[in-house]
Amino acid sequence: MEDVGGGLELDTVWWPPVPLPALPPLVPILASSVRRLPDWPAWGVRWDRVLSKSGRQVQQRWLRGNPQQVLGIPLGTAVVATLIGPDPVIESLWTYQWQNRIWERIAGARFSLVIGPNYSVYGDHPRFEHRLNIKRSILAAARMRMFGVPAVPSVYVWRMEDVDALARWGNEVGLDALAVNFQTFYNYREWDRVLPLLLALRDALPQGVRWFFPGVSSRERIEVLRELFPGAVFLTLRPYECAAHGRRLRDDGREERILARPEDLLEENLRVVARWAEGGRSKSDARDTLPVRV
Known about the structure:
- Helix 6 packs parallel to helix 7, helix 8 (219-228) runs parallel beside helix 10 (262-278) and helix 9 (238-244) runs antiparallel to helix 10 (262-278).
- Mean pLDDT is 88; it is low at 281-294.
- The protein has a single domain (22-278), classed as Alpha-Beta Barrel (TIM Barrel).
- Helix content is 40%, strand content 13%.
- The radius of gyration is 18 Å and the shape is globular.
- It starts with 25 loop residues before the first strand and ends in a 5-residue tail after the last helix.
- By secondary structure, it is of the alpha/beta class.
- Strand 4, helix 5 (127-146) and strand 5 (151-152) form a beta-alpha-beta unit.
């Protein structure tokens, strides 16, 4: 309990104001290096390209230069890091956060934006653990902001009392952004459970909160969330993952195998998913209307 300030309430959490960059509705996530990346305003890298496998360290390559140089992309391109990872990794990150100066080193990496780790809220676990992990998720992002990192907290909610607690805190501190990881909402039952809670949270938080949705991959869910959360940013591995396995995405959301270079498939898949996220706008529209501050 000492690690989280001695209690489960959120009202003790300071939320440092840090400007966030403008981003396009789609930030494609990369799981490994790509020979040639298409021209796009922002790219994302997942936890295993940022942290060591154990979660105890930040990989050294991010500390030797700017993230654009690491990815081989133009300096004006935003690079978003997501620290959403398996439970053992983010638990290790929490344990070694001060000893290994993890937040300070993430600040040194100069990412354009960081989606914080989301500590798990399992339905069959005690409510004490739910509230503890919601607070840890918020604290991780707040501690990064203390070092000037443009960080966004990634949280789960299980009951309306979680929504109420987040809303009270969010209004008190002027919360500017929130992320919800959709990777664990595998089926319609989970989707039907969480969506009403998110809508209640949307309506209870301050006007102008920016929403980030990592892990949304289906056309239907992207389009629903796009309408319910105007201006939302979707972070998804799907364009990369399909291209890496020789699959092309179609506008209807289906996949088809095709013989092509992965980098060419990535560009084509990127345009398809961008249409889902942007509501039909083209790639050039996204770059023209959404300047990126790095």
